Amino acid sequence: MKKFLIPETGRFYKANLHAHTCQSDGSATPEEVKQVFMELGYDIVAYTDHDIMLDRSHLCDDKFLALNGYEMEINGKGTPDWANMETCHINFIAIEPDNLKQACWHRSEYLYAHAVEYRDQIQFYEDEPDYERFYTGECISDMFAEGRKHGFFTTYNHPTGSLESYPQYMSYNNMHAMEMYNGHEYNPRVYDDMLRGGKMIYCVGGDDSHNRPTLMSGSGLSWTMIKADKLDYRTVTQALLDGNFYASQGPDIHSLWMEDDMMNVDCSDAVEIIFTASNRRAKHFCAKKGEVINHAEYKVFPDSKYVRVTIVDKSGKTASSNAYPIEKLLG
C-alpha cells in the first residue's frame, strides 16, 4: 500500500517565501511585487519586509495569496563593514491571516531604510518589554521560539550569504525550516549538518527579491511548491506546518511515496536522482548519455535517521524534498 509523503490529492502552488518591497529596502511596491510574481507563474508570495509586518490581505484574490510576514536580522559585532559582517536573518510568516502582532518587537531600535516610516503602524504585544537582539545562539534560538509561540512559521535564511559557519548555525534551535535556496544560493551541506545534528527541520526556497540590481535581488530564481487543497491562507500555512512541499530552482517533483520499505519519486525530466541519508546509505541514479529519467526507487534502511531526495535537470538546476525521519518512512 502506498503511503504518500507529499499528499496525493490537492494541487501544487508556486510560492516565493521571501520578498521585500519599497516599504523596507526593496524598490517595488507591494502591488508591483504581486504583478512581477504572477507574471512568473507564482500563486503565493510571503511579504517579509525587514522588521515590519503590514497587512497584505488587500492583495489577495482567487488567483493570488499574500502571506503576512517580516524578516529580522541579528548582526555580529566583529566589524562595522557590512560586506564582511556575520549576520543571522530569520523570517516570520504568520500562520493565521489575522495575526498582525509582531514578536520580538523593539519600540525604538533596529528599523532602517523605509521601514522607519511605518513604525507607528506596527502592532505588537504591548505588555512585553522591548526585545534586545544579541548575536548569540541563545538569543537567536529564543527568537525562533518566540516566533513559534506567537503563531509564526519561522525560517533560517541564506546561511551562505550571511557568512555563517558551522559553529554558528548549529547553535540555533526552534526553527521550522531553513532556506535550501535563496536565489542562486544552494545550501545542501548546511541542511545535512543540521539534520545530522538532530534538527529535523524542513527546507524551503525563496528569492529574497528586492527587484533592484544588487546581490540576491532577482525574481523567479528559486521557489517552494506547496501542495494544498485550495488557495486559502490557512490551508496553505497548514501545508507549510505539515511539510507538504518541496523546494526548487527548476525541476518538478510530481509524486513522492513509500511502498513497503521502498521510497519512490516521480519527477520532471532529470539526469540525476539522488537519495541522501544520514549515513552512507545514499544512492545515486544517473540517466544514460542523451537520455533522461523520471522515476527512481530506493530501499530505506532502519539504521538511517532520515532520507531526502534531490532531482537534477540537464542544466544542473535542482529540486530538494524535505528530509523524512526514518520512523515516518518505516512506521
Task: Give structural notes.
The chain is α+β, with helices and mostly antiparallel strands and 331 residues long. It has two domains: 10-247, TIM Barrel (Alpha-Beta Barrel); 250-331, Sandwich (Immunoglobulin-like), CATH 2.60.40. 15% of the residues lie in helices and 34% in strands. The protein has six helices and 21 strands. It has helices at 30-39, 137-149, 166-169, 188-196, 233-242, 326-330; strands spanning 2-4, 11-19, 44-47, 65-75, 87-94, 101-102, 123-124, 152-157, 177-182, 185-186, 202-206, 223-228, 245-248, 253-259, 262-270, 272-277, 283-286, 293-299, 306-312, 318-321, 324-325. The strands form three sheets. It has a 15-stranded mixed beta sheet that branches. A four-stranded antiparallel beta sheet has the order 1-14-15-18, with no helix packed on it. Strands 6-7 form a two-stranded parallel sheet. Strand 9 (177-182) and strand 10 (185-186) form a beta hairpin. It is globular, with a radius of gyration of 20 Å. The two termini are 13 Å apart. 45% of the residues are buried. The model has no long low-confidence stretch (mean pLDDT 95).
